[in-house]
Design goal:
Length: 99
Amino acid sequence: MSARIEDHPVLGSLSNKAKLTFTFNHQTVEALEGDTIASALLAEGYRELRKHDVSGNGRGIYCNIGHCFECRVQLEDRQVVRACVTAVKDGMTVYSLRK
């Protein structure tokens, strides 16, 4: 079930956006062209993106503008990126950071 706003008064309609898919922790996730990893995961109901390095508590999207590092995820090539400022690419593989 998507939590997307399908028709926004300023941003317009999403109906003309190309659909993409990627995997997050081995689960297929649908995204739209122009989505960041964070926006696609949020729209699909994902709230926890990683575990805190010390406490092990779940961490998710916090600022959503690239200032903090709460939304860090790992790409297939082992690069760690901030999900809120990294664009989705069709077929990409994304993993949570685990303690």
